[in-house]
Amino acid sequence: MKSSQLIAPDRNDRRALRLVLSRLTASGVIPSVTPSLDAGIAKAGRALRAAILAEVPAYSHSGNPEVLPGFDTHLGEHLREIRRLFGGGEDGDFDFVRFQAHRRAEQRFPLDAILHAYRCGHQVLAHWLRDAAIATFSTSTDLIVSELADFAIEYTNTISTIMAAEYVSQTRTLAEAESDQRTELLNILFSGYDESDGRVQRLLKRAGYLEQRQAYCVAVAQSTNPAEMELPQRAQRIANAMLTLMAATPIRILVGFRNNVVAAVLSDQRRQSGWTTPQTNLAERLRPMLLELGTAVLVGTSTDHPSTSFLPKALHEATIALDFADVSRRVVQFSDLPIRGLMLHRGGDYVRSAAPRWIVAFMEADEKAKGSLVQTLRTLADCDLNVQQSGRQLGVHPNTIYSRLSRIKEISGLDGQRYHDLVELLLAADCWKT
Question: If I label 349, which of 92, 192, 279, 288 is the partner at 20 to 30 A Cα–Cα?
Answer without folding.
Answer: 192
